[in-house]
Every structure is written in C-alpha cells, then in structure tokens.
C-alpha cells in the first residue's frame, strides 16, 4: 500500500490503530482481488467469522457497500462488496499557467464533475486559490456532496514543489507562489487533508493508472516549460530528496546557444524547445483576450497547413527534447515514455522526432522494450493522477485511521 511520506495539512493521526484484519479485508476489496466475503476469507486466510465482523464494521461505517450481483444465477444471487460511492469525496485542482482544471470524485475513482477556472497562475496564489475554492465548493453543492465528507484535496502546481511542506519552491513565472502555504490555505476551506504536488507528477500518475500501461513510466510535459514525472515499478512517484526530481527544463540543450531562460541561465532546453518557446520563435501570441489557447490553436493550424517555418521549429524542438529524453532513458530505463502537454497534440511530428533521437542515441538494452507514445488522457491526466494519489493516501493505514475516526465523528453512514 502506498506511503506518501509527504506533508498532509490537517492530517493529524487519530489515536486508534487500524486492526490488521480490517486492513487486510479492505485491501482486498480496494484492489479488486476479492469482491465477496467468501473470496476474502479464501485469499486472506482469515476465519469467515472474522471476515464477517470486519465487513459488517466497514458497512456500518459507510465505507463499503454490499450489492446483489446483476448476472442471473441459480439460487440466491451472490453479494458483491465494493467501496461505497457515499464514503466520501476527493477534490482535485490541476493548476496550469493560464487556467486550472478542477474535479470532484468519489472514492471509487468515478469523476462526478469537472470544470475550468480561468485565472492565470501569475495572478498570484490568493486569486487562484480563492477562485478554485469557490468553484470546488460550488461543484460539491451542485452534486449533493457534503463538504464535511471531503476526504482529501490534491493540488498540482506547474513548478517545483516541496512535497513535505505543501508549497511551491522558487517557481519561475509564478509571482507570489514561492513558499506560499497552499496546503494550509486550502485546509482552512475544506477541513480535510491537503496534498500539493508537481503537476507533471500528477500527470504521470494519471497515465500510469490506465489499463495496459507498464511501469516504470516516464512522462514528459511540454508546455510553458518542460518537466518530467517518474513513476517507479512499484507505482510510486519518484520526487527526489527535495521534490526537485523531474525539473528537466533547465538541462542545457545541445542547440541552446545563448538563449536566455527564465531561470537566469542560458541555453536551457525549456527556453528553446517548450511550447512557449516555439510560439515565441514564430511570433505567435500565447493567448488573446478572446482565446486563452490562441497559441496552441494557431500553431496546430500552421502545422496542418505544412507551414515550412512551423514544421522546422517543431522538428528542431523534437530533436532537442529527444536528446534530453535519451539521457533520461539511460538513467531510469522506463518501460513506457509518455509525451504530454500542448505539443503532444501535434502527435506525428513531435512523436516521430523524439522517437528518432531516442532510438539513435540510447543503447538497445534501454530501448528494446520501451513504448514511446503520447498521452491517453490529454488535459485530464493530472485530474486522474490526483484522484489516484488521493485514494491511495485515503486507503493507506494512516488514511484509513482518519477515515474511521471521521465516520465515528459523523455518526457512520
């Protein structure tokens, strides 16, 4: 079971411990390994009476539900155990440069509602978080979800994040965000544990949660900057010692020359090969008053029309990104490489360019089983990653202790 190891605002650990038998029963249901009392008893080795006691306890607390199977069988219909959709709600905010994707979901990973908050990140943390909070509370009200039963809030930020403290650390292009207590600020509004992570980490988690996707997984987001999310073979995010793992946009590009980067250095790959850098080189505004995604739309149209300058710029960017990715493939030996962000929508030119460099530069041992592809989830990857992160936290041993304590305080189901 996942151990986040990070700071969870408001996540005080209740004194009661979680019984081992209850932990085992819930693990089997959450993982889908067992969906009935008899299956749980067989797989866990627990006595049927013990399984029955723990299942009844979880049913009474509103964490599990037991339903009759739909398929027709002889005799008494079998009873199926699942996580109750009413066990609680997860709130996710995936903050990006120009806007924020938000969603609420139940503990079965089912997205209940989504929306977009059109406040640029450079408006500052108070404006963005006020807008996000207001809209999330609105979604909860519109869909009949009790704010008191929000079990965790997950926030993705487009910059380096101190996962332990729940804040951004010296992010570029994000005035006012450095050290701002994002987790504490949202804890005040939702009275629930809050986890803050880098947006690419959430994107990588979302992609890794899809069927038939193998780990280790390396996810590259090419947007206003360039970042990487790394998912280990065990399905955990690799964040590094201080949360700076994956900040690859500031690796020096081979063709970077003296191009000034927002970090103050020159020749960074993000300064020459990001989506923003491409738009700048082609003289395309990133956004207009009428269209926040004007740059992405205009570039896509130029590429579709086979504009020579646009195609050349895109292929040059793919080459520069491919050089960095080839180095990462040697370092981490991923089984899956996913390209995301606005440039990933220009699938053919970007993907073929990155693939060509990776297979040319990386040794066969590192690439013989490597799958290189673009995002399956598109702009919703961060949302799904946030939901995956939250559910793993909620059903970890500390999270389950909090959940049981909250249900006792709220009178069970």
Please specify the SSE layout and strand pairing.
Blueprint: H1 20-31, H2 37-44, H3 48-60, E1 64-68, E2 79-83, E3 89-95, E4 100-106, E5 111-117, H4 125-142, E6 150-157, E7 161-162, E8 167-168, H5 182-190, E9 194-198, H6 199-208, E10 217-222, E11 226-231, H7 269-273, H8 275-281, H9 294-304, H10 308-332, E12 336-340, H11 347-361, H12 364-367, E13 371-374, H13 381-394, H14 397-409
Parallel strand pairs: 3-6, 6-9, 10-12, 12-13
Antiparallel strand pairs: 1-2, 3-4, 4-5, 7-8, 10-11
What does this structure look like?
- Residues 1-5 and 11-15 have low confidence and may be disordered.
- Helices cover 40% and strands 17% of the residues.
- It has helices at residues 20-31, 37-44, 48-60, 125-142, 182-190, 199-208, 269-273, 275-281, 294-304, 308-332, 347-361, 364-367, 381-394, 397-409; strands at 64-68, 79-83, 89-95, 100-106, 111-117, 150-157, 161-162, 167-168, 194-198, 217-222, 226-231, 336-340, 371-374.
- It is globular, with a radius of gyration of 23 Å.
- The two termini are 25 Å apart.
- It is α/β, with parallel strands linked by helices and 413 residues long.
- The protein has a five-stranded mixed beta sheet with strand order 5-4-3-6-9, sandwiched between helices.
């Amino acid at each position: 079971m996942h151990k986040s190891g990070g700071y969870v605002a408001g996540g005080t650990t209740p004194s009661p411990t979680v019984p081992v038998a209850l932990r085992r029963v819930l693990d089997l249901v959450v993982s889908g390994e067992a969906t009935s009392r008899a299956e749980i008893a067989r797989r866990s080795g627990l006595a049927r009476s013990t399984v029955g006691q723990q299942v009844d306890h979880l049913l009474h607390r509103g964490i599990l539900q037991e339903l009759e199977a739909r398929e027709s069988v002889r005799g008494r219909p079998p009873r199926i155990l699942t996580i109750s959709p009413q066990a609680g709600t997860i709130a996710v905010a995936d903050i990006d440069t120009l806007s924020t994707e938000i969603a609420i979901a139940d503990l079965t990973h089912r997205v209940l509602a989504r929306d977009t908050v059109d406040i640029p990140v450079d408006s500052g943390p108070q404006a963005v978080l006020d807008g996000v909070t207001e809209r999330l509370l609105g979604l909860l009200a519109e869909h009949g979800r009790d704010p008191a039963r929000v079990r965790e809030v997950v926030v993705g930020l487009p910059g380096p994040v101190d996962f332990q403290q729940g804040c951004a650390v010296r992010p570029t292009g994000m005035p006012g965000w450095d050290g701002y207590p994002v987790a504490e600020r949202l804890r005040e509004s939702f009275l629930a544990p809050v986890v803050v992570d880098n947006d690419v980490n959430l994107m990588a988690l979302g992609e890794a949660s899809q069927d038939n996707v193998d780990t280790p997984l390396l996810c590259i987001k090419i947007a206003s900057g360039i970042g990487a999310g790394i998912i280990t073979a065990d399905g955990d995010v690799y964040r590094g010692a201080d949360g700076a793992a994956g900040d690859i946009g500031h690796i020096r590009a081979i063709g970077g020359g003296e191009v000034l980067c927002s970090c103050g250095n020159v020749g960074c790959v993000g300064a020459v090969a990001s989506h923003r850098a491409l738009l700048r080189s082609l003289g395309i505004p990133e956004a207009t008053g009428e269209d926040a995604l004007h740059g992405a739309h205009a570039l896509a149209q130029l590429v579709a029309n086979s504009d020579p300058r646009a195609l050349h710029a895109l292929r040059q960017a793919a080459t520069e990104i491919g050089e960095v990715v080839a180095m990462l493939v040697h370092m981490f030996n991923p089984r899956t490489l996913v390209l995301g962000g606005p440039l990933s929508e220009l699938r053919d030119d970007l993907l073929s360019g990155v693939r060509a460099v990776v297979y040319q530069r990386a040794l066969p041992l590192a690439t013989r089983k490597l799958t290189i592809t673009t995002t399956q989830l598109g702009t919703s990857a961060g949302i799904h990653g946030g939901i995956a992160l939250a559910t793993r936290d909620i059903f970890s041993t500390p999270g389950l202790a909090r959940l049981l304590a909250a249900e006792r305080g709220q009178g069970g189901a």
